[in-house]
Amino acid sequence: MDTTVLDAALEGLRIVFSWPYILYPIAGTLLAMVFSATPGLNSASLMALAIPITYGWEPIPVMLLFGAFVGGATFMGSVTAILFNVPGKASNAVALLDGYPMAQQGRAKEAIGSAATASALGATVGIFLLIGMIPVMRSAAIALGPAEYLMIAIWGLTMLAALAGNSLVRGLIAAGLGFQLAFIGYDPRTAELRFTLGVDYLADGLSLVPVLLGLFAIAEVIDLLASGKETIAGTRSFERLQGRMIDGVRAVFRHFWLFMRSSVLGTIIGAIPGIGGSVAGYIAYGHASQTAADNSQFGKGDVRGVIAPEAAADAKDGGALIPTLALGIPGGTGTAVLLGVLTLHGLTPGREMLTDHLVLVFVLIWSLFLSNWMTSLLGVSFVNPLARLTTIHTGRLVPVILVVAATGAIQYRGDWGDLACAMAFGVLGYFMKRYHWPRIPLVMALALAPLFENSLHLTLRLQELGRIDFWSRPMVLVLLVLTLLTVLLPPFSKRWKELRRHKN
Amino acid sequence: MQRIKMALQQGAWLAWVFAAGTALLLWQSLGLSPVASLIPRFVLLFTLLLLLVEIALELKPSRTPGANIAGSRSEAEPLPRRPERPAMAPQQPWRVICWIAVLPLATWLFGVIAGGALFCMAFLRWRSRESWLYSLTVALVLGLVLQVLFSWVFQAGLYQGLWTR
Amino acid sequence: MIKKVLLVLALACPGGIWADGCDALQGQTIRFIVPSQAGGGYDAYSRLLQPFLEGSLNARIVIENRPQAGGLVAAVMIRDADPDGRTLGIINAAGLLAARVSALDTATARAPDPSEDFTVLARVVANHMMLFTGRDSGISDLGELLRISATRPVVVGVRDAGSASYFVFPIAARYLGLNYSLVTGYVGSSSRVLASLRGEVDIILQTLDSVMPYVKSGELVPLLWVTDPAGASQRGELPSKVPVLGESGDGSRQAGGADPLGADTLEPEAAAISAMLSAGRLVMAPRGLAPALETCLQDTLVELLHSNDLMRAANAAGLSLDPADASQALAELKMSRRYMEQYAPLMRAAIDETRQ
Asked: Which of A55, A142, A184, A186 to mutate to test the interface with C (most CBs of C within 10 A)?
């Protein structure tokens, strides 16, 4: 590493852990944890609230506080996703796919332990990749264009087959439904309203948060009540809960290679402006399922289904800072507000930031790092009382879950229509679950379809105008090879193993 | 006819609902420009075709739908009955949905805090058969927590209902 | 006699005339509705204003972000609120007018009319828009752009169809005699900037303050002021003199081309474009405010927007201010609407072309 960068890194680290500066990331982390545990609220809202309070502050406390907001805002949403199937925000939704079934099996502690570990370590990987990329940040951020975005979307979509379970037809139908839902609203290329059926609420399209809250949280509530299940964990006795927190921690190291791949994936996807955190989690989840030797337990409580998306979702925070700091282009909603904060305090992201204010950059980065670890450590400290919640009688727990989920849905945009939408999807999600229709391909397609359609349009248009040559872009070819490998390798590998077993 | 009836009982109607929705959207796409409708039409047609395949498969008598689907309900172990509190009996899904529909209605009328608290109280008292004291206490605490968190700590205005605006 | 004495006393008291108007807001919570996500351009201006407005009105300002439908939802919320001064907001007046005038669908046809459906309080900043190109594009100035345009279409990265800048570009191009191809789908100014840096597009149409860091670092080169730059506070920071559309001697006027609107209805495009976009970002309130309250809010805002403290804070944040009082802002709005209605057929034709 360049000595200038190293010096700045060490100075930034010293500042973060010095008194009284250490108080800022601690306070920021605690606030971010409360926010992220509340559905519908996210770090962007918290940062927006804090802006007027921090007017007139010096840059260092600002960076410390807002770095903690970014870093502390992911994990707690996964806790509610695991325990109650209520995602704190869209990027936490993937954790519930296997986390909630684990809680239903009485393994909530193991799920939280693995999520906390993957979260902290994933953030660490993302941050170190971010630091390593500082010298080449700007060129890396500029290099990725619509063609690369398209390949990422295609790669994500190829994973749908792996998530369809035994019924490929139903999986593909669910994906098709997800695409249809994504088409609703304004088409930005032609300014046409598509598939709104004359309903004004749909003019802006369907928002991912109410759909997720409905398909998973509300659907599960309906299922709990309809089935007459006594508690989420299936037992009223806390002592009968299986799984230990330490098992979850060990699981991350047992699947270390998967964890590393997911973290790198998350960082790369986070670095692409406009893609969004939920996509990182879904792609990591799909990749984990696709590359697993035995993926029959995915969606039924496979710990790998928690490790992969958690690692990716937290690594993406580091990735999202790459275009933000290097170019002043936000990697996601949280970094969009962070960008506003930086400019309001007279700090211009870009070349100036990476040369004249490198120490401040590292203060931000180390604060993010510290808050991620704090969140995970605090999360596991409370794992017992948190797990106990799954032994509360359903009749007492369900109305509280419903009100919290409803608050999250309606608070997201302040629109009652989002609550109605969540309820409608809750009913749909229940029947899909009851009659064995997969929901994951639907949400994955819903998350990826806008990226796919817009990138496809831009790529074709730019290719038509001769501005790009799709087949001569190195990253496109790398992604294409990666896509082919992840599609062909698992069945080929399975077949090869079967042949070898037969031979032996 | 018997086969259709059996298939409907096993949930085949869901595929028909999806097919009807897809057909409706396909019809809607006829009014769009070529640029805006290109990819949607392709997806809609493909999905409709798959739905027809699925409907045909569901009408086959030997079909065991959707085993091993990620996210589908797994077989639950029988739960031991505990004497201190009877579990809520299983209910028809439509009754559950009607209960849950009270929440958006209450929210629309009274806002998030009052509507949520009212729903919580009603659910605990009449659905879960909790005592009045417990129901009112939980509802009040929940309302207070929402008020403190959103209005005071987060300073985020909560949705005001029709009657409380 | 007593009434005359009371009137004199009221006038003599500092802030006497306004005391009744703004007094009603003291200690109250005011919703400030913003048509963008937290962190977006309108949000930044709103948060810049927030502490100053709180101090002046002695009230609490709560910012509500309502980015849905490109700002239409925010505009409707402001319009439909009670006229008690407790709901204010900032709108993209040019964008709203463009949506309404273009009437591309039922939703936009019912968009509020900023010149009729609101109480205009003040203008925060006009839209000072320029054409930019990337450093590595091979286009060094406007003359070079026009020379290239003679040999091949110039590729322009634009926002979603239906926005004001999308509306403006075909008119500006017609004035310049520019041969161009539009690439839509670059949602957000940052994606257009990236497209320019990557060399995917030749030029983009942006506000100066949104891309100032790139201009300062030399990565983006300004080619032409599309709107009147008078009042653009960052104009002096440009590395070199940049021509202005419509100014004599700018070398931009090209002869020829049939005018689909007919010569007798045509206004000079350059002035028209400026007028259409000058409406800018306006602070609005619902119609029907009490006269005293309306006057109080208007005067408070104008005073604030011209204050040194706010100017300093805006400079530090890299945001330009170009304030105007309510009457000027309203006059510009009405002029803007007139021109937009005149050019509506051209805009619809441009969008129809995109849909083929």
From this structure: A186
